[in-house]
Write a structure and sequence with these properties.
Elements: H1 3-17, H2 23-39, H3 41-55, H4 61-67, H5 71-86, E1 95-98, E2 104-110, E3 114-119, H6 123-135, E4 139-144, H7 149-166, E5 174-176, H8 183-188, E6 197-201, H9 204-217, E7 220-224, E8 229-233, H10 239-248, E9 259-265, H11 272-281, E10 285-288, H12 290-293, E11 299-300, E12 318-324, H13 327-336, E13 342-346, H14 350-359, E14 364-367, H15 376-380, E15 386-388, E16 397-399, E17 406-412
Parallel strand pairs: 3-4, 3-6, 4-5, 6-7, 8-9, 8-13, 9-12, 10-11, 10-12, 13-14
Antiparallel strand pairs: 1-2, 2-17, 15-16
């Protein structure tokens, strides 16, 4: 049986499992998954060591760190599925009303069905996404990069599927593309009748390529490909507050919501050397546009202004700096030159802050706060499947189990209604 047939068989087994899913049984399965993570930690560590050893020399240190598990991280895996178990189930009927003709109309949230997920070599993502899909009563077909396949296979075969069985649910509700070849990802996004929606997480170009292929096949995607936080320093900004926001936005460099682009208003130009000094102290490569280099010691910018350094494995410790003429220019750059993930303003002028927040069109806008809070758990209390930066209707920003549904209207009459 070829890879296409294998993935289709997994998807069809998942579809058969969906009618059996219920809020109570899924919560029970997630609790069991947390228990099994702890009970089978030795198996997880063994598989993960093999993954890490095989990946040395092929992945950079940041990616190796995200791939690796230890006792502390395994405990974190157990805790994250417990969090999902404890969250309230999705509200299935948010509204109901009666029409003048006597029809009763209810707005319902129904499961999507079988949802695919392609993600990078991070074992925790397998539990995050599978847990949220089950929580929303959807089935999951997971596909990870070859670097994490051993670890994710153990999570599926020794944790998630046995947990489903303990709760009396079909084990096929969570499937796995069991191939390290990238063709597995391409197959996942090419089956619109079996897997109508695929969650994509990973590096920008790879994810963009899969999203294009999915569109050609009629498969919808929720893509988390690009990020990069923006901080605009207004002329009214408090020096210490603004510097603190910048520093707290750089506590981790390989994440999408870190500070990527600093925009300093010409009215705040006296603060620019302080920011550059901070970046150098943090061991960063601060790169500036020509106008920024007129005011501070910066290396020349050799990429486009919105280039996301977190996706640039060999230059991740870099930040871009520019000087802008006013708030309008800052918003224009944030809207047109970056991914639209997140942007913030450091300002004490309330009217300026309101103008920035009203004009920025990205997924999350901040005032005197770090863009690092662009995160499902931090903002909503639920882990995320990813952050969707699409400019179309639908779930946008951090996507959680609360977003993974289809709207349906249920209409009841007495047989007398006519158009």
């Amino acid at each position: 049986m070829g890879l296409l047939e294998l993935v289709r068989a997994e998807a069809r087994e998942a579809a058969r499992a969906i009618p059996s899913l219920s809020d109570e049984a899924v919560a029970e399965a997630l609790v069991a998954a947390g228990t099994l993570v702890r009970e089978r930690s030795a198996l997880l560590l063994e598989a993960n060591r093999a993954d890490v050893d095989a990946a040395r020399g092929r992945l950079d240190e940041g990616m190796l760190d995200r791939l690796a598990l230890d006792e502390r991280r395994i405990e974190g895996l157990a805790e994250q599925v417990q969090v999902m178990a404890d969250l309230p189930p999705l509200e299935r009927q948010p509204a109901r009303w009666a029409l003048p003709n006597g029809l009763s109309v209810a707005e319902r949230r129904i499961p999507i069905g079988t949802v695919g997920a392609n993600f990078e070599a991070r074992p925790n993502v397998a539990l995050d996404i599978a847990g949220q899909l089950l929580k929303s009563l959807n089935a999951a077909i997971l596909r990870t990069g070859g670097a994490a396949l051993r670890t994710v296979s153990v999570l599926v075969d020794e944790v998630l599927r046995p947990a489903l069985e303990r709760a009396g649910l079909p084990t096929g509700a969570v499937g796995l593309v069991r191939s390290a070849d990238r063709e597995g990802a391409r197959v996942l996004v090419s089956l619109p009748h079996d897997i109508p929606l695929v969650i994509l997480r990973g590096s920008g170009e790879t994810t963009a390529e899969l999203a294009r292929l999915a569109a050609e096949h009629g498969v919808r995607t929720l893509a988390h490909a690009e990020g990069g936080g923006v901080l605009y320093v207004h002329g009214s900004a408090d020096r210490l507050k603004a510097l603190g926001i910048a520093e707290s936005s750089l506590d981790r460099l390989g994440v999408c919501n870190r500070l990527n682009l600093l925009l300093v208003d010409r009215e705040a130009i006296a603060l620019l050397p302080d920011f550059v000094s901070l970046f150098w102290e943090l061991g960063l490569d601060a790169r500036g546009t020509e106008r920024a280099r007129e005011h501070a010691e910066l290396n020349p910018l050799d990429e486009r202004i919105g280039h996301e350094w977190a996706n640039d494995a060999w230059r991740v410790a870099t930040v871009t700096v520019d000087v802008v003429g006013d708030l309008g220019e800052a918003v224009a750059i944030a809207n047109s030159e970056t991914s639209g993930l997140a942007a913030g303003i450091a300002a004490e002028d309330e009217r300026a802050a309101a103008a920035f927040l009203d004009s920025y069109r990205g997924t999350t806008a901040f005032w005197n706060a770090t863009t690092r809070f662009t995160d499902g758990y931090a903002l909503t209390g639920a882990p995320e499947t990813g952050i969707n930066v699409d400019w179309t209707p639908g779930p946008r920003g951090p996507v959680t189990y609360r977003d993974l549904w289809l709207r349906q209207y249920r209409v009841t009459g007495d047989g007398s209604q006519r158009r």
